[in-house]
Amino acid sequence: MYQHEISAMRLSLLLLVAAALSAGAAAQIAPFLGGQGPPVVPGGQAQPVVGGPLSPEFYSQSCPRAERIIAEVVQSKQMANPTTAAGVLRVFFHDCFVSGCDASVLIASNQFAKSEHDAEINHSLPGDAFDAVVRAKLALELECPGVVSCADILALASRVLVTMTGGPRYPISLGRRDSLSSSPTAPDVELPHANYTVDRLIQMFGAKGFTVQELVALSGAHTLGFSHCKEFADRLYNFRDKGGKPEDFDPSMNPSYAKGLQAVCRDYLKDPTIAAFNDIMTPGKFDNMYFVNLERGLGLLSTDEELFTDPRTKPLVQRYAANSTAFFDDFGRAMEKLSLFGVKTGADGEVRRRCDAYNNGPMPK
């Protein structure tokens, strides 16, 4: 159903885009390639959750090895498939931003009911991410059956992989329940798209209680992973400026970068799986290079470029580009807040036996 997988050979070929950068541009960026070790982010204020409080010690008695088991499984998956971290992080965001962090995105469609999988924006969610959660769930069911929710697995797996790739470790409270419904239409309405303006992004995030700072900090997750060519092709081919004048490509892009992307994406209409790294400089490392790239004309998506040109977000981009510790601190706090968004507890959800299916079918509407 999904065309998520990109071979190691294809990902290696995508690095050729970096070689397309001029020597001058590469030299300009080189001083920014260093990174700092991940600081521990202090706990922030938790949003109220439905049905009762969560706790970092939720499984201390019922499944004391839960976090260790999840970490071992997803770390092994990441080592075998280095795109797993970006995929899990993306699936986590797509889950939380639609009806809350309740594993509704993990429900598979069937002949009787559609799910969030059917939303167009979710068609490209990576299979490695779903597989990592499934493997963790299977291991936990052997250790302590029926105890750890898929929503908690996804939240913990995201943190493990952020930290494993060089990012911050932030607090995660546990006790989420899994959803009893999954909408096939909500994701296309509630999730940001690659061509959204900053106005629309601020409105969308604000409606869910997130600040402009949290919007920019969470956008820093684009330091990992890749995007399919169709998501940014309008910047590369048949581009016209605001006055309608045709351009070879979006002039806000570094010319060598744009030409390299044009070469990589040449056949994207024939092969929709062709993609490019969001961060061409350090694609497998969680760092602040995404923001440095924006300053150098190396942002991939139009939404990325908008963050650097809009006066409400540009100062934050510049701050994070200059100070990786500030980015890590703010990203960690934003992720902690996101992990608590729309959480279900108690009778508002269930602990699924399988992450891709309800225990007794979806809740009637």
From TrEMBL:
Pfam families: peroxidase. The record marks 90 as: Transition state stabilizer. This is Peroxidase. GO terms for biological process: hydrogen peroxide catabolic process; response to oxidative stress. Substrate binds at residue 192. Its cofactor is heme b; Ca(2+). Removal of H(2)O(2), oxidation of toxic reductants, biosynthesis and degradation of lignin, suberization, auxin catabolism, response to environmental stresses such as wounding, pathogen attack and oxidative stress. These functions might be dependent on each isozyme/isoform in each plant tissue. SUPFAM superfamilies: Heme-dependent peroxidases. It is found in: Secreted. GO terms for cellular component: extracellular region. It catalyses: 2 a phenolic donor + H2O2 = 2 a phenolic radical donor + 2 H2O. Belongs to the peroxidase family. Ascorbate peroxidase subfamily. The lineage of its organism: Eukaryota, Viridiplantae, Streptophyta, Embryophyta, Tracheophyta. Disulfide bonds join 63-144, 96-101, 150-355, 229-265. Residues 53-359 form the Plant heme peroxidase family profile domain.
